[in-house]
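Protein modeling request. Please complete all fields; requests missing the sequence field cannot be processed.
Requester role: graduate student
Desired output: 3D structure, token encoding
Chains: 1
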Amino acid sequence: MAEQDIKKILDGDDRTLATIISLIERDSPQVPGIMKSIAAHTGKAYKIGITGPPGVGKSTLIDSLTSLIRKQGSSVAILAVDPTSPFKGGAMLGDRVRMQRHYTDEGVFIRSMATRGVKGGLTGAINEIIDLMDAAGKRYILLETVGVGQSELDIAGYVDTVVVVLVPDMGDSIQAMKAGIMEIADIFVVNKSDLAGVDRLVNNLNVTLGLNEGRGEWQIPVLKCRADQNDGVEDLLDKILQHKDLLEKGGRLEERRGRQRLQQFEQMLEHKILVEIKSKILDSGKVNELGNKIKRGEISPYTALNRIMKTGIPSFFSGKTHVSTDNKE
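Delivered output (329 residues):
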């Protein structure tokens, strides 16, 4: 990557930003050099995570929130992490379609990404892309997850403020909180507040929050909102800014980001180890050999895995040790 392209990123060139994000998604060998070049220019953006079950109106809420932030004169980057298409491998939902009014706004950068099957529902390239957006001068970065499974919890490792969005009469709303949502939420938003049951859900959330102790100075608010009518969105932005102010004044923001940097290193290390192991496995040719035997019913998947682990992955795939592939265990 030429120095002039890095300079374009730092000058806020969105076309170059999009090109480099594509390189990161493809795991280009240029990525380490790019990230090293921009490292000194990160840490200025405030990162907000928007999560919750599918269908609660997260994209509509982000659209309205973006408009308010832009009215205050700050630039915004939106990163919407969508499920992967089983046919083309790309993002399925295409959240950018729901944010058309921001297309011509030079102060808004929107990117949809596919999870590509990454455990937890968040793409493995997310840290690098957030850093790029930060270096490109985006003052607020809004990260939306697919809102399924572990992704609702993983988002806390990437952002400064976590907003959990729910709607009335979703049977899994309170159940989902038992899986850890209560521990990562900084703000709850009950969207579609015109629906029946909104007050019941708000009361249930407040009761549940009241049972949890040790939350510190920040009292988690539960806000009612109707994003499609911009009703309650200003209150949400006010609470986000209050949380931001609290984190910055108390030194907790840098502490939180320090934990995120450590997590990023651990994720990078895990990724590199997996890539190296997969490369050695594929080069050995033994995966195809085992796979064919499993398909023919000559050996069970459990027996094959057990034999590999008993021998040791390096020894097995280096070919130094012969492992019987019969189905006796």
